[in-house]
Design a protein that fits this description.
membrane, elongated, single chain, 9% strand, 5 helices, 76% helix, cell membrane, two-stranded antiparallel ribbon, 2 strands, 2 domains, mainly alpha, LapA family protein, LapA_dom
Length: 116
């Protein structure tokens, strides 16, 4: 399985390098259309190679997807945390009840009851 993963990552790396080499043209990214920028009085423009724009868009999409999924699963993580705390509380309660029940028994017999 490890070799399949390495082969996939190597192939992906070769594809990304070839796309990067094929798209080295410089493009200008503008925050607003020119007419709107003149109307508002500011214009932010950035000149980058095309492959950086494409790979940056892919990376931004992946990051946005991870954050979106993390926020969406918040309620499930919260429920699991509450259940985990409840289980720990109940385990402590069971342990204390076993200690009360085996208070008059020998220590060895109490240990054997804990294992069973």
């Amino acid at each position: 399985m490890r070799y399949i993963r390495y082969a996939f990552l190597g192939t992906l790396g070769i594809i990304l390098v070839s796309v990067s080499l094929a798209n080295r043209q410089v493009v200008t990214l503008q925050l607003l259309p020119e007419d709107l920028a003149h109307l508002l009085g500011f214009n932010f423009a950035l000149t980058l190679p095309l492959f950086l724009v494409v790979l940056g868009g892919i990376a931004a999409g992946v990051v946005i997807g991870f954050v979106w999924e993390w926020l969406r699963e918040h309620k499930h993580r919260r429920t699991a945390d509450v259940k985990h705390r409840e289980v720990r509380k109940l385990e402590r309660e069971v342990k204390s009840l076993k200690q009360k029940q085996s208070g008059d028994k020998d220590d060895i017999l109490a240990l054997l009851d804990d294992v069973a």
